[in-house]
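> tool_call: predict_assembly(chains=two)
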Amino acid sequence: MSTYVYGITADSHPSLPEGMDGVGDPACSVRVVKEGGLAAVVSDAPEGLRPKRKDLLAHQNVLAEVGAGGPVLPMRFGSVATDDATVAGVLAERADHYKERLDALAGRVEYNVKASHEEEAVLHRVMSENPEVRALTEANRQAGGGGYQQKLRLGEMVVAAVKAREAEDAAELQQALEPVADAVSAGPESSGWLANLSFLVARETAEVFLTAVEQVRKSHPHLDVRVNGPLPPYSFVDPGPSEPADTTIGSDATTDAEAERIQERMQERIQE
Amino acid sequence: MTVVPAQQTGGGGGSSGLYDVLELVLDRGLVIDAFVRVSLVGIEILKIDVRVVVASVDTYLRFAEACNRLDLEAGPRKSPGLPDMVGEITESGARGKSKGALSGAAETISGAFKQAREEGQGERQAESRPRARKSTATRKKEEPE
């Protein structure tokens, strides 16, 4: 039977969750493979494992349990080795590297922060900052809403302003939180967020970090800021410098080709 | 305004948090070459629609209408962006927006579950459905195959 791997920790870890429920239905029991001063937290790998809610939660829960007792290198969901001997081989082969990472992450946890705009609130903000938008809105309103082209012009101007605001807010969020974290990592791109950032935070300064988040909420009331943590340090298992600020703003990705396509569509509709 | 309190506990890990960190569990964490990964078919849709506000004619018209409905007098005078002053007229818009983002994630995962269910592998995903049903997503979401 192949072996599902949850994470890697030190074999001196005081409370390895042996016997805990892992992935699979019925749940496979968690056990430990030790080698070279390290311990891999594993279970049998169920046949046909898929990223189902129950299994994702099991993965997450096992890692939370290990992480509560000491540093852990969380595996990405779904990592399966041929057998326990393969796991032991990997531990032996890369022991120094994993020990270095565990030392670097000791006492630290990940906080993931996502932000999106409250739409009406950000429209107010954009209007208050932009007299041109205000004037055009007022003109359209007095013209009973304005014609199709006036609406397009206003909408285009507002969308540009909102997108600029997205980029600014993402940068301001990162600037506000980076100083109270040890490292920052841009989260994977996914729908709906103007910022998706993970921060590595020392457990003992977590309160400072959360207070900084509260301050951002107060200073940016048009932002919906969601914090999740403490998490196993998913985003910090690999060494390397934190992401530079300009790579973390995922919301400004309109390509030239797409802009052209939109222009064409607009032309077509206007001509109709 | 939606304020989500931070989880203060290290253990346990409720399912509510799972939706918010799904992409970390699936796309971050240690990868070891000697191990294989289970198939994540249906999960790739997490990567679609990166932009929050999409530049399109439809978006332009929607935003123009939204501006038209805004209370202009309230905007410049008060401190900008206070959700309270937005009032009833705009409530549905703001809610729709923020829920859209959240239910997007929920839809994604419930879509993946649906797929798994159809393959006869699971019967316990009923919990994910209330979230999906609440969906008022305004953005286009792709359904998994």
